[in-house]
Amino acid sequence: MMNLAQQLREQAKKLLEEKKVDLVIGFGQGTELARNTPVFIDSPEGVSALTWGPFCANNLAKYLVDYKNDPGSTAVVVKGCDARSVNRLLDDNQILREKVVVIGLPCPGQLEWQKVSAEIKPGSTLKEVVDNGDSYTVKTDSGDYTFNKKDYLLHRCLVCENPNPVISDITIGKEIPVKNYEERFAEVQDLEKLAADEKNEYWNKQFARCLRCYACRNVCSVCTCKVCAFDQMQPMWVSKRTNLSENTAFHITRAFHVAGRCVDCGECDRVCPMDIPLRKLNVKIHKDLGELFNSPTPGTEPGLISPLGGFSPGDPEEFM
Amino acid sequence: MESRVVNKGQISELLDKLAKDYNLIAPIKEETMTLFRRVSGAQDVLLDYNNSDISPKGCFLPQNEKTFSYMYTGDTLEINKPVGTQKTVLFGARPCDIKAILTFDPVFDGVKFGDEYYSSKRESTVIIGLSCAKVLSTCFCYAMGGGPCDTTGSDLLLTEIGDKYYVEVITEKGQALVDAYSQIIAKQDTAQLAKDKDELAKKLSGEFVRKVDLTGVKELMDNNFELPYWAGDDQKKCIGCGTCTYVCPTCHCFDIFDYTTGDFTGDRLRCWDSCMFPEYTLEAGGHNPRPSRKERIRNRFMHKIKYHLDRYNMVGCVGCGRCVNKCPVNIDITKIINDLKEVAQNA
């Protein structure tokens, strides 16, 4: 994996040297051994900060929106799931294709850093990460630690649809076969089996915890509204008060607002400081969209018409 | 003051009694989260946690607080304030979080301004602290003047030693409580336990892996409001959510607004607010003095390492590590402090 990081640095350097882009957005070492952080490289000398591995959970595609009005082009490092975001941002006219260089890396799965960190001796320094197929070996100065993917990957990675970026200008690394450790809709199917009041009880318990920090909204690559209804003071659709009613209004509205556009990158779920399983809401909608409209996960291909955002004159519904 | 002992076998009995006599707030497990909640007895209380996901600051500054309700009937305006404060015990809070409450005191209960909603809760609450048993990789309380077994701010501090809790009585309030429960919080020879606690404190203080040093940072901030540093990666990667401020035990900003049901009846509420939100400083005329993430990030960290010191001579960070742990993009206050220190040294 270290070799891939080296290739990534070389490609980034070339892009910056040849002035094909003004900025490369990628991953750099974070402040914990098992954690990487977004880095913004604007000079060829800066590329040494770039890294790659199983600690690159963030979806960097949304940052492209911050630079869309800059004169130059921007390169972004994406995994398979993040690449769906790029497609979706293009379809939503949030970014311009000619101003974006997509550096795609086939991804063998991202580890949950807190879980990994808890097992590694504090203060250790990372030497290397080796991908063994169904596990990673994290080599450090305090010894080697092996993490089974089944137990340590982010849940979204256990049911990954696109380990290989669905859009990429420069691909680094070999194509990776799809490997699912779980049935994609298993969690949602379990919830579907519950009676209505049990479902209600389940979600009430989750939403009651919400702090309304809006991390889920802000991290979301399809939440790109200039002014969000939840930030408006007049009219105040939802007040700053947190309670079950207002929190539920927020989460249900959000889930439906991204329905048909959510690319299932799972970032909302990852960033929630209160561990609210937000992805389950989105995955339920994906499941329904698939069953009802035979619709693939948004962003899987460029130019996919959102099942809820398009229409057909031949629609069998009478009102058409 | 004196010190006493509670046998581990009797801690449940103590908690049950406290829950009967007081409004008892203690750490509990809710799914994957460790949170402070009101408990009805010992059965739900979690004592072997490391760092709760949210600090117990809500005991004194709830995320939502009704300051009064109002009703306008056409010719009269009726205003009702919530009455009375319940006698409360905050049990099992960690030393960093208790130190954080001390940073609230001069803000809400100061010489210049008094806030009755805060001070009534503060007065009627007994804080029973619990020494840490473990140092996490994100912890850095030692660098902010605290420590895993620090007694500062507690009325009583419990330290787990073998099959006992060593109880240090720190304040009069704590003394009154141990006297009322002296059947369980027993008088015993505590010389050995005191020695064991010192040993534990020493051992834990050697386990911090984050090296943080505030020396010179405030002085740099005093003379440099504008630093190129603030235009760096942190403001680029910040997603502008409120996670860091809501999980922070010392962040105490709030917003006040009316929640009206439409017929001139409603509540005036005070709710947590976050300086990381653009609306936080948005003025009525449309001007925003902190228009971008650069200004907002600078403000948050300046508040921790300069403004709180300027105003109250206290660092506005206690080193609990929650923002480090929870930030979606790994913005890390310890890195910022160390980076600024480097800037100061090279200036």
Describe this structure in words.
The complex is a heterodimer of chains A (320) and B (347). In chain A, helix 8 (196-208) packs across helix 10 (244-257) and helix 10 (244-257) packs across helix 12 (278-293). The longest helix of chain A has 16 residues, at 2-17. Chain A folds into 2 domains: 2-171, no CATH class; 186-293, no CATH class. Chain A is an alpha/beta fold and 320 residues long. Chain A starts with a helix and ends in a 27-residue tail after the last helix. Chain A contains 12 helices and 8 strands. The mean pLDDT of chain A is 95. In chain A, the strands form 2 sheets. A 5-stranded mixed sheet of chain A has the order 2-1-3-4-8. Chain A has a 3-stranded antiparallel sheet with strand order 5-6-7. By secondary structure, chain B is of the alpha/beta class. Chain B folds into 2 domains: 3-205, no CATH class; 217-346, no CATH class. Chain B has 11 helices and 11 strands. Chain B has helices at residues 11-21, 95-108, 116-123, 172-180, 191-205, 217-223, 233-237, 243-247, 293-312, 322-326, 333-346; strands at residues 3-7, 23-30, 33-38, 64-72, 77-80, 88-93, 125-130, 156-161, 164-169, 254-260, 265-272. Chain B has a 7-stranded mixed sheet, with helices on both faces. Chain B has a 4-stranded antiparallel sheet with strand order 5-4-11-10, with no helix packed on it. In chain B, a hairpin with a 4-residue loop joins strand 10 (254-260) and strand 11. Chain B is globular and about 65 Å long. The termini of chain B are far apart. The mean pLDDT of chain B is 95. At the A-B interface, strand 2, helix 9 and helix 11 of A face helix 7, helix 8, strand 10, strand 11 and helix 10 of B.
